[in-house]
Amino acid sequence: MIAVRNEEKKSRRAARQREPREKGARLAALVGFITVLFALTGIGLSLYLGIGYMRERAAARNDQTAKYNDLLTPIAAVDPDPFDEITAADNDQLLDAAIWAILSEDSTPDTYGYEKGYLLIPEADVMSAFSVLFGQEAAADLTHDTVQGYNYKFLYDAAAGRYKIPITSIKPVYTPQVTEVKQDGDSIIVTVGYLSSESWDTDEQGNMIRPEPEKTMKVTFSSISGSMCISSIRLVSRTVPETVAPPATTAARTTAPAQNEPKSEAVSESVSARR
């Protein structure tokens, strides 16, 4: 009997010694599980935040591309000669671009008056559009004059202080396709392809077929009087030889670019309908 009791005491003593170790092992396992759970949650959260960040960056890039496509629409429409500084640019070409900037706005047909087949735009509005594109200092040196474009003419009426825009369908020389927007110190350098307005086509389903750029330009925007304005335009490359013949002016376009194209023709057609 004494021997049995001694064995029972030893068994209970051994059980008490094992119990803390088992509890410690269970606690360690629980802590380990929670640590792994937090780690996995952290990874998931990091991935979620990372994907969200990348999406935001992609959306920002798309917004930037759309912004500079809009800004460069009148530039591509006119295709001014390259220049390293605004003072070396051709006055009439920049003036032409400023007028195209106004014609590209959706509200243009309802904003201005008409007279004998002409849309009437005050020179003050042209000056304002010029300032947005090229800066106030360049606008101060602007000389108002009649603009001779590709198969069109914007007449300047000095006495009335306005431009007379013929209500006809005109095509831009090029439409822009921005491929890169890069910060360079205080400047922004935009790489843009010029797509010929004559080269757009449609497939059998009626979808627009975008042409390849005929040339690539780098347009620099610099801070001028607190605004980012065009300070230089440089030719990077050309895929087709430069031609002398300008694009034809037509009464109605058979193929029209679906994106990035100035709305001047739509303006002209809507004005004609109202007339």
What report would you give on this structure?
- With 275 residues, this protein is of the alpha+beta class.
- The chain has a domain at 83-166.
- The protein has 6 helices and 11 strands.
- It has helices at 2-78, 91-103, 108-111, 123-134, 136-140, 264-274, and strands at residues 113-115, 118-122, 147-148, 153-157, 162-166, 174-184, 187-196, 201-202, 208-209, 215-224, 227-238.
- It has a 5-stranded antiparallel β-sheet. Strands 6-7-10-11 form a 4-stranded antiparallel β-sheet. It has a two-stranded antiparallel ribbon with strand order 8-9.
- Strand 1 (113-115) and strand 2 (118-122) form a beta hairpin.
- Helix 1 (2-78) crosses helix 2.
- The longest helix is centred in the first third of the chain and has 77 residues, at 2-78.
Write a concise synopsis of the structure shown.
44% of the residues lie in helices and 24% in strands.
SSE blueprint:
Layout (H helix, E strand, L loop, with lengths): L1 H77 L12 H13 L4 H4 L1 E3 L2 E5 H12 L1 H5 L6 E2 L4 E5 L4 E5 L7 E11 L2 E10 L4 E2 L5 E2 L5 E10 L2 E12 L25 H11 L1
Antiparallel strand pairs: 1-2, 2-5, 3-4, 4-5, 6-7, 7-10, 8-9, 10-11
Helix pairs in contact: 1-2, 2-4
